Structure formats: C-alpha cells, structure tokens
Amino acid sequence: MAAIVRGILVLTLLIPADAFSIVTGPGVDRSRCFQEIGRSDVKMTMTTTREAFFCGRTVTGGVASIGCLIAGPANAFEGGVGGLGKTKPETGVVFRDPTVPTTQSSTGVVSQELISPSSSKSLVLVSFQSPWPLQPSQTSMECRDLSQPESAFVQVGTLEGSSSNKKITPAFLTSTLFGSKGKFGAYGSPMDIKIKTLEERLYVVKFTTLTPGMRESDRMAYITVKRVDDGVFILVTATTAARFKKLEPTMKKIAE
Q1: pTM across the whole model
Q2: Which of 96, 36, 30, 38 lies closest to 68, judged by CA?
Q3: Which of 69, 83, 131, 141 is buried deepest, with most CB atoms within 10 A?
Q4: How big is the CA angle at 103 (ends 97 and 107), to the nearest 5 degrees?
Q5: Is residue 129 a contact partner of residue 108, using CB atoms and an 8 Å limit?
C-alpha cells in the first residue's frame, strides 16, 4: 500500500515493529526529536517510525521505548562475513550522510538513510530488527555476534535491462550476493548455491564458502528483498548450516 503522509512516500502504511522496511522520501534532520508517538490502536506507522528512528525510539503498540545504541565511525577492519575477509566487501550501501551514524534502538531496531542506486537517486530509510549488536561502519549496515557465525546485513543492487525484463530472480540474487567481492566471497566466490522461493520477496538459500584456512563451510541464509525503482534492497540473515535449524525461528523473524 502506498500513501503520502507529511510529504513522505510510504511504501507500506502499517508494518510490525520488527519487520524489514524501507521508506522513500526527503531527508530528515536527525537532531529533531518529535513528540508524537502515534495512536495506541496501531502497532506502527511509517511516519511515526521515521520520526522515532531519528529520536532513537522504537514504537510498538503505541508505546515508545527510549534509548538507542549509536555506532560511531568505523575503527575496525571491515572484512567479509565475521570480519575475517581479506578486503572490505562491496555491499552497494551508500549513506545519505556518512557523518551520521547508523542507530540501533534498545529493542534492536537498526535504521539508516541510504541513497537508492536507481536513476532517481531516491532517499530510502532502511530498517530491520536484530538481536545481535550493530557493527561500527560508515559503508555498511551489519549486525553480528563476534563470537558466533550469525549475522544480518543489508546489500543493495541494481536491476539491469529493459523495463519488461527487470525482475528479481534467483540469478539476480546470486550475482548480487555471491560474487567474489561480496560478503561471502572474501576467499573465493561461494559454491553450490541453491535458492528457494518461500513467498513473494522471501527466499532461503544454501551455499558453501571458503574459510581463511581455505576449508569449505556450508551456510544457510534467509533473504528478504524490497525494490525502489531499479534499486533492490536486500536483507541477508545468515549462519552456518549446522546452526541453522536451532536458530531458524530467530532468523526468520528478522527476515520477515
């Protein structure tokens, strides 16, 4: 559903607080702190969400949770999955203002304004909820547990070709996510990639990556996609295949 609310193009008017969401619209001064919380009979409106994000608040059931964690400028090595890659991966993420840090609320909601890679160069508010801490970066949106293989991160891609052929396909996801320059390709492109469509915009994938010791590591991930013009915003929630079954409920909640 789309609507115009206070000058903001709302792609989805009402969403649960823990959903992967994007909103397009003009830039917002994060120093402002709005007082309106929203009606108690709605879980979350995108207008309230946007205002709340820039105040460091999360709105659930009309109740505001104050407080957020702010990741400052990147001061650690940003490698591939787990931070162990040889080079900084290319995620396609471009911040509207690199000097403004990504925020994570006290309930784990991560948000940042990005620039769409489409010709329109739309400003897009991207948000998702993660139980893992936000990693400091000026070029990526990623949460991960440094002691475990789990992670959730945003990848941005561009649909090529004529308008009639611009569709999000498994082949597009494979080329965007699993190249040698991506998060999973620090030691070589992933292998044996099998993508299964669960529902519209939600996929599960099995694949094999190489570790720093050049050993094969089987992994699984949920992939959620949302499109703004020709730009595609992808939330990837991944872990090892051995841990996937145990963590699947948590990972699917992040993805949905």
Answers
A1: 0.72
A2: 30
A3: 141
A4: 160
A5: yes
Looking at residue 245, its pLDDT comes to: 95
Helix, strand, or coil (residue 174): helix
The answer to whether 235 and 176 have CB atoms below 8 angstroms apart is no
Long-range contacts from 202-210, C-beta under 8 angstroms, 24+ separation: 202/255, 202/256, 203/170, 203/173, 205/173, 206/241, 207/178, 209/81, 209/184, 209/185
Task: Quote the tokens at residue 63.
Answer: 């109740």
* Contact (CB, 8 A) for 23 and 97: no
SS3 at position 66: strand
DSSP-derived pairing of the beta strands 142-144 and 8-10 = unpaired
Q: Which pLDDT tens digit goes with each residue over 90-99?
A: 899 999 999 9
Residues near 73 by Cβ (< 8 Å), separated by ≥ 6?
A: 101, 136, 138
